[in-house]
Design a protein that fits this description.
mainly alpha, 50s Ribosomal Protein L17, Chain: A, 6 helices, 3 strands
């Protein structure tokens, strides 16, 4: 008969196995889903659910017990402030295991363990990128200066840039230049005046 043989050893020593579960618990609480082998996911699941049950009773003793498994203070804070309140009305079953097939190389069965309520959305990145592209982009100081310079020059602005009620300044007409005479100097006399060029000495 097999007494006191519960749980998988996973071909690791006790200290190695506990350190591995500590790292996996920290990653699971930080990212709310991780991929690992099916056997590791099955061993990790009761530890994660027990940890969340302890965190539901917020207190100093509970925080110390959670900190024994998760050394990162930021992750411990997230467990008590975000994850545990999500499951206050749920008596158990905080995680789920999804089988993902077999791993290339050693053909180990791979699974994803995730917290309930944080379902994976394969289109999340595309939706986020589309939402960011739809937002109007705020101009920096350089962009505002260039737009002001273009308004002063009288160039039309792009669509949506011109403020309501703002008038585009028009170019002022340049004053006409005075007519120049043959000598290259401006003719300041009347239009009827004629200019005569003196003849050179000895010329015919």
């Amino acid at each position: 008969m097999m007494h006191n043989r519960a749980g998988r050893k996973l071909r690791r020593t006790t200290s190695h196995r506990l350190a591995m579960f500590s790292n996996q618990l920290a990653s699971l609480m930080t990212h709310e889903r991780i991929q690992t082998t099916l056997s590791k996911a099955k061993e990790l699941r009761p530890l994660a659910e027990r940890l969340i049950t302890v965190a539901k009773s917020d207190g100093l003793a509970a925080r110390r017990r959670v900190a024994q498994w998760i050394p990162d203070r930021t992750t411990v804070k997230k467990v008590f402030e975000k994850i545990a309140p999500r499951f206050v009305d749920r008596p158990g079953g905080y995680t789920r295991i999804l089988r993902l097939g077999f791993r290339r190389g050693d053909a180990a069965e791979v699974a994803q363990i995730e917290l309930v309520g944080s379902e994976f959305n394969p289109n999340a990145e595309a939706e986020k990128a589309a939402a960011e592209a739809a937002k109007p982009k705020a101009k920096g100081v350089g962009g505002r200066l260039r737009a002001a310079a273009e308004r002063l020059r009288g160039k039309p602005q792009a669509e949506g840039e011109e403020a309501e009620g703002a008038e585009t300044p028009t170019k002022k007409a340049k004053p006409a230049r005075p007519e120049r005479g043959k000598g290259g100097k401006a003719d300041t006399r009347g239009k009827g005046a004629k200019t005569t060029t003196p003849r050179k000495a000895g010329g015919s």
